[in-house]
Amino acid sequence: MTVLQKLTTRVQQIGRRISSIVPSPLLKQVPTLILGLVAALILATSSSVRITDLPAVIAGGIGIVVATFLAWMLVLNVRWQRYVLVVPAIDAIAFSVLRYGTDGFDSVFAAAASVPLLWFTVEAGRRHLILSIVGALLSLYAASLLFSGGDLSTSAEHVRERFTFAVVCTVACMVVFGLMRQSRNRVDEFERMLAESRALAEKVHMAEGLLRGLWDAITEQSAIGTDVTGLIDAWNPGAVKMFGITESAAINQRRIHEFHLPDELAARATELDTVIDSNSANPGFEALIETARLGVSDVREWTYLRDDGGHIPVELSVTTRLSDTGETVGYLFVAHDLTRAQDASRLKDEFVGLISHELRTPLSSILGYLELMRDDRDEAPLSDSRLTYLDVAERNANRLLRLVGDLMFTAQVESGTFQLNEQTQRVAPILATSIESAGPVADAAGIEMVLEMSEDCIVNADGMRLGQACDNLISNAIKFTPRGGRVTVGLVGSASSATITVADTGMGIPAKELDQLFSRFFRASTATRNAVQGVGLGLVITRAIARAHGGEMGVTSEEGVGTTFSMTLPLVQRQRLLRPIVGV
Amino acid sequence: MTIDLLPLRVVIADDDPDIRALVTIAVKRAGLDLVDSCSDGTAAWESLQAHAPDVAILDVAMPGMTGLEVCRLVRADARLSGIRILMLSAAVADRSRQAGLVAGADEYFIKPFSPRLLAERLSLLAAGATR
Question: What is the ipTM of this complex?
């Protein structure tokens, strides 16, 4: 039974209770009817009651019957409810007529007319109280006025009797009115509660409908709820799809850790060894929820295990379910399937690998045979111009090779498969090597190379990659500096970092392009304008290398004055050089 | 001993005929004796079993069987224990080189390779083996 069904039933119960508190007009008519029957019985059996006017007696009887019929009609038709007071009014008149027919003033039924008038008292509002008291008194005294010709000063006993009766009538009316008001207030309160409950039930119904709709709409993610012991108590259509297990076969039947690779759970339990009690009944489940239990949403990759033995790589978010009082009442496991993402990533890697291989193989032949041609000079000596042709072919083949390498490297960085082979490394020798290898190019371009450093820095780095980054920065600086310019390579250590700077006196980069500089395939407008070769991968790669080392890249530039790139790496140690190096 | 004066015997395997020819030239320049030249892994493995050469130069990415697989088979075969294996590969990543060395290769050449350097390396090998 849902919460809503329970609530609806409760509201219906309250509704029934309220209607039983307020009596129906027919029920209110019952005392008058009984009184009428008793009067009829007395008239039929007792010889002491004198019938002075038979038609009046019959008219009184008919009046009561008509009033009762009316009361019944009112029960059947709720819309006539506001005319309900017609019933006691007819009753009162009927009793008065009856009294007239049975010796008038001295009739045994003298007090009967005040009974239906009590009905007025039970109606809401003070005017009904006054009406009923006035009505009762009227029925008493009107008779005196009618039957004794206005002579109210009969015997003292008569006066006292009548006055006492009036007092009793008034008190009775007031007591009844008070009681009725109390119960009416209670009814009102119930009715208000009922209305509130109904509104609440409706809200709950809407909220539940929304939640249910949402829950059913999630078909691509599995959402599984458990209690604190891991027993499953919620299982969405996504879980049905992922595991091929129906909701009824999972709820209260299975535990969440049964769907996890035991090895992974064990590994995680070992990882969390310090916080998990090894005596725990189920360390696997504890490992699964440990982070979530601390109130942190825990998202990590796991492998789900299907009953048929199939594995599903998932990204799983574990959260705690709390009660209103903040107590943990269970856990929620929402997972999405990573199979397709992993397939796509693997395909991409395979594709990049294949492309790289297919490009490198023909380049191997080109470069290999070019080298053979150059080396075979003994057989047929080559003219200088032909040697120049070979140089050009070789240089371009090498350029293509570097491009393939750069593309491959960028793909690795993107797919996260790029790995560093880190060792403690002195930076100065790496810089020296880069400058040395750039020497011939710088000479040919008529650019002066300067190295400035007063101390060496030791960092944790992959020497080859760091060298590649420095080569990139230096070759960039040379490419963008006109003949006669200067490229200055510097190294500065601080308390926590080592900063390599490469400054040129080149064409500079427009300020608004600086933040795009590290985007893939981006080329500064000054570069394209000056027809500088490149595809826009060098800085992407350089920054990827810097970041992989826990470092960062920076750049400052002024158009027409020059550009300075800096690479900051976490420092292990500084080392003073025996002799500061300035210049080359 | 006359056997020491005989040149080292080499089997090469690469699916690209131009590379095969390039390696052949390097082998000849180093003064080694090329006994077989194969275009796929399966043929290479059969040839190695048949000829039991002194040196095998294997491409990694070949149809039939990869160079790594051939390498593992050779290392698992006691009769072929003396073979020196040179791997040629277009895969530059460090882990590819590691995989080659783990499979049992003695040398790992990255493509593009210099035929001159390969020939020098083979000459050194020959000198070492005949010393």
Answer: 0.88
